[in-house]
Amino acid sequence: MSLQQEIQKRRTFGIISHPDAGKTTLTEKLLLFGGAIQEAGAVKSNKIKKGATSDFMEIERQRGISVATSVLAFNYKEHKINILDTPGHKDFAEDTFRTLTAVDSVIVVIDVAKGVEEQTEKLVEVCRMRNIPMIVFINKLDREGKDAFDLLDEVEQKLGLKVTPLSFPIGIGYDFKGIYNIWEKNINLFSGDSRKNIEETIAFNDINSPELEKIISERSAANLRSDLELVYEVYPKFDREAYLNGEQQPVFFGSALNNFGVRELLDCFVEIAPSPRPKASEERIVNPDEPSFTGFVFKIHANMDPNHRDRLAFVKIVSGTFERNKPYLHTRLGKKLKFSSPNAFFAEKKEVVDISYAGDIVGLHDTGNFKIGDTLTEGEMLHFKGIPSFSPEHFRYINNADPLKSKQLEKGIDQLMDEGVAQLFKLDFNGRKVIGTVGALQYEVIQYRLEHEYGAKCSYENFPIYKACWVEAPENPKDPEYLDFLRVKQKFLARDKQNQLVFLADSAFSIEMVKQKYPNLKLHFTSEY
Ligand code: G4P
């Protein structure tokens, strides 16, 4: 098969949702369709159980599972599908943001009863910013939930999407009869049998045919006809170009648990979802069908065995083919590296492979060469654009609790930050280290891992900071306004890992004051500006 054909058949995507909406259940049903797993329950949810924030066993368990489920690949109808796992827990949102740099499209899962939830909003916003094509799956139709039109409105308003339903429910909850598939023009009746794998559908080209009353009640038929009339009137026709440009989002309804509406979603997905897309690097746009290999690291996972400090770096192949034992250029370090046992992923297993194609993910064993965002090529000096760091929400000083182990602590902190567990800031005026995280859970993860993997002990001290703002240096470094800001705020100035200047503001008010006092000063809320 040619490189072009290999690329065309690939679909690399992520499923995003608020915890409990049904991401794990949907993933599992998709894998069942691909024949990649044999039974339900094979895919483990990596969500952190409620109330388990102090349970280190739980953290370890979660890490173990998330290695296994980082990439789930399967074949379906001539397509090679790669699902990238995205943690739903909000404390791991950064991890999900980074994974979204490696997907070519996403499926958004929404609970029919709960509607759009907080985590969905944040994740969809990131996808919208990047124009990632999205398909919405409204789940748990077997339960009582919101009215379908109200939900579509909510999705449009809260998520800022332009939806068009490609299927529509017939009744809901107790009264749920099935789904009319607008895309395929057929009806799928709901039997509530979760063991059923392949659904039987009844073709229905003309919804006004009296045949409809024979399979669903008169009342349901009348409701469906009027609902569909409204759908055709209110929502635009599906437009693939608009979908691919992130300007329109098709919606499917179903019940993942009952494996209902999932086949329809998958069939439409493989047909409309994009194959690997071009990616921007600082130097140029790289197309997937270029013969030379390029790729970037979007995730690093520490080894579960604390005695072996090697890690697995997950590389998304942007172009060409990745081959085992071929030397590739690590463009940040300027050195060539060879990989003798690159891992590919299939279902929940990983195995050594000789060749992988653009769109695929390879896992590379790493002894400390990689950072998130690093680029590999066959020799060309390229740097793929990643996702900027956002301001953390929690800040704490980190102190050394065992003076004999300060080297270990340094190294541990350094490597955990490369993995993207949290952000490190170093205060300018006294050199103290501050760890910024999205969630409180990360502090426990860091403390636990420093101790178990690096033999170092740390303690934390509260640092009441509201937000990190990146400060852009003026053209004239002697600019009096800039110098005055540096002098007045010196206790709140720090450097991030890239040595960029950061202003750690203690309140929204102090940011406002700075803006007023120094109108020409350029403050940014992300690390790339
Ligand atoms: P997540 O990965 O998005 O966090 O969600 P997950 O798939 O774990 O699903 C969350 C809960 O919702 C699970 O129940 C799951 O069985 C249920 N669920 C998923 N899809 C459907 C659906 O279509 N209909 C109904 N009624 N329920 C659904 P749980 O009790 O929390 O977990 P479990 O004990 O079943 O594993």
UniProtKB/TrEMBL annotation:
Q: Where GTP is bound, by residue?
A: 17-24, 85-89, 139-142
A biological process (GO) of this protein is: regulation of translational termination
Q: Which species is this record about? A: Capnocytophaga endodontalis
MF terms from GO for this chain are: GTP binding; GTPase activity; translation release factor activity, codon nonspecific; translation release factor activity, codon specific
The record lists the lineage as: Bacteria, Pseudomonadati, Bacteroidota, Flavobacteriia, Flavobacteriales
PROSITE patterns from the xrefs? G_TR_1 (PS00301), G_TR_2 (PS51722)
Q: Which InterPro entries match?
A: EF-G-like_DII, EFG_III/V, G_TR_CS, P-loop_NTPase, PrfC, RF3_C, RF3_dom_3_sf, RF3_GTP-bd
- Domain Tr-type G residues, every copy: 8-277
Q: What is this protein called?
A: Peptide chain release factor 3
- Xref: SUPFAM superfamilies: EF-G C-terminal domain-like (SSF54980), P-loop containing nucleoside triphosphate hydrolases (SSF52540), Translation proteins (SSF50447)
The entry assigns this protein to a family as follows:
Belongs to the TRAFAC class translation factor GTPase superfamily. Classic translation factor GTPase family. PrfC subfamily.
Q: What Pfam families does UniProt report for this protein, alphabetically?
A: EF-G_D2, GTP_EFTU, RF3_C
The protein's matches in NCBIfam families, at most eight in alphabetical order, are given as: prfC (TIGR00503), PRK00741.1 (NF001964), small_GTP (TIGR00231)
Look up the record and report any one GO term of the cellular component aspect: cytosol
Alphabetically sorted, this entry's keywords are: Cytoplasm, GTP-binding, Nucleotide-binding, Protein biosynthesis
Q: Which residues form a coiled coil?
A: none
Q: What function does the entry list?
A: Increases the formation of ribosomal termination complexes and stimulates activities of RF-1 and RF-2. It binds guanine nucleotides and has strong preference for UGA stop codons. It may interact directly with the ribosome. The stimulation of RF-1 and RF-2 is significantly reduced by GTP and GDP, but not by GMP.
